[in-house]
Design brief:
By secondary structure, this protein is α/β, with parallel strands linked by helices. 42% of the residues lie in helices and 14% in strands. α7 links the parallel β6 and β7. It starts with a strand and ends with a helix.
Length: 409
Amino acid sequence: MAEEITRNAGTEDAFTLALNAQAAPGTQWTEAQNAILSDAGFATAAGTIRAWPGYTETPLAALPALAAEIGVAALHYKDESTRFGLGSFKALGGAYAVARLLQKELSARLGRDVSMDEITARAIPEAAQITVCCATDGNHGRSVAWGAQSFGCNCVIFIHATVSEGRKTAIEAFGAEVRRTPGNYDDSVREAQEVASAEGWFVVSDTSYPGYMDVPRDVMQGYEIMAAEALDALPEPPTHIFLQTGVGGMAAAVTAQAVRRYSADRPKIVLCDPDQAACFLASYRTGARTAVHGDLDTLMAGLACGEVSALAWEILQDHGDAVIALTDAAAIAAMRRLAYPEGGDPALVAGESAVAGIAGLRLAMEDPEARQMLGLDATSRILTFGTEGDTDPELYEQLIGAPASQIRP
């Protein structure tokens, strides 16, 4: 069997599929991986976040008509467009990491154990002396800004050159200062770290790198709530999970929940990269974290990342089975198919960074060799995650031809 194939070069349906040579059926969850994401850590995160005002499970939509059209037995889509009113799953991670950071720092400053209840109640005035910051393509920064506003600390968010004004304004609405930097996302990550070091601020990043692991671990642990909700709601375990990547934090969190829950019977994990920011494709090719460079110019702004998170790699190097790199056009087609469904499926508002999983599934099912490589057939049960709604309303309307208010039932 081929380890990599490329199809439809130069067309809107172009894609590359590569298997991960390091993944093997039955690979065990290691102690090192458990130190990153664990049942105990998940229980702490879930207990905290589920107590926040406004918490409710997001819906898991069954899409039988689209499943039949694609050629699989079942297709479910976890719709994160309503999460805490922020429009994306990122609300589970950034804000939780802010709360955890404040709890740790204020406990150290005050010389006593500050409780999470005190943090969420804004009961510690000294929180106003602390500034958190991060780099973002939009959604993570919105979550961090919301967390800072909710828990009473200051916030500065760094965005790179191609982040839209709409996303900038949405972050500012939560009281954060927003600074635009030259370069791409990875450049803004470095800028945020350098300024934070000079100013004595605290970085709350969703990507990890040597020397910076604790906060991204908390971010990822928050994301596991989305995965647990979805897996709890499914009528049968999935055979495959298709996940968009970016730096890989969300994909690693979903994978961690699936591996710990199902062990050797876990579903196959298929990652989906934008072809202009395909850092997981590059990494699976080499067998090590491998950065891609350039302007990373993809419409899928939340996935425009050239460097794989170190923590995410620790999980996905063993438990990610394959990666598909696909075009922006394929993502737009998936957005439109979800907005204008056929056969009785619900209409879904899915942003441009929400649909790489759905798009990758369709491309794979249309190619006999890709189907064989991934073990896909008419009995397959697929889980996907709609990780954002119309977080850039102007762009969404431009791509879909109607505002989200006309799409939502």
